[in-house]
Amino acid sequence: MRAWQVDRLGEPEDVMQFVDVPAPTLADGQLRVRVRAAAANFPDVLMCRGLYQVKPDLPFTPGVELCGEVLEVGPGAQGRVGDRVIGGSVLPHGAFADEAVVDAAAVLPAPDGLDDAQAGSFFIGYQTGWFGLHRRAHLQPGETLLVHAAAGGVGSAAVQLGKAAGARVIGVVGGPAKAQVARDLGADVVVDRHGEDFVEVVKRETGGRGADVVYDPVGGETYDRSTKCIAFEGRILVIGFAGGTIQTPPLGHALVKNYSVVGLHWGLYAKVMPQLIGECHAALTRMVDEGRIDPLVSERLPLDAVGDGVQRLADGTTTGRVVYDAGVGA
Q1: pTM score
Q2: Which of 77, 147, 163, 190 has the most CB atoms around its CB within 10 Å?
Q3: What is the CATH number that goes with domain 128-267?
């Protein structure tokens, strides 16, 4: 079968190789799936660079989430051949391949209201957004939500989930094209950081009060600037560090302004409180059925173009989700 493999560490364009490999074999509790679609995520970039907390042995196939069709049920696993499922892949057999491996206990039914590419980009971004906004930040109707990288993968999901929760959403993007994407997603106010200071915009739009919740997958200077426009008793959600810098927050500032710095390691819920993953999926599926969320798939790529898509994600030039879609070019 065809697969992208990483056999050394570096930039995706340098280390991802498109090769033929044997089909994966299964351990206890696993399923082999035909990959119908798989979104590129920033952890894929970081794993290529060797900078992610998960460091699979070399060589490995990246692609941490997928929509797949069950081809084989391993020993001790529950599942049915032909089921359409979503979930995370089991490395080293990631989703940027014709076939991948998943844990049977961790997969979820793909929502009927989503096509394969949308379903293949639904698991990580929307689960992260739901846990961050609802369980960690307790976003309330009428509050102001500031979303950084609002036209990106996790940011676009946060915009839609914030609107669905009844919040007023301010989205920060880089460039006019991304600004239009954020508007189309439903952001009430869009800030192009290349031409405006989001701190000043947030203060103006909130009458000086600031944002109640900040959704920050960027980190670094973006986090530091967010502390200048956080409301009294606001919550800054630390989602990730796509900007490349892990900041050291000045806790004295949090003390004198009465705001909270809230971390989210969504993947840990699967180990500590796995029942919440299914509850979240049920809530998100209802939102799909009600037309309240609609995953933004900006590019549908054939498998042989995935390496370029992952590199463009690394370079910060993509909007929405870049997805391997097995139906493209088939």
Answers
A1: 0.92
A2: 147
A3: 3.40.50.720
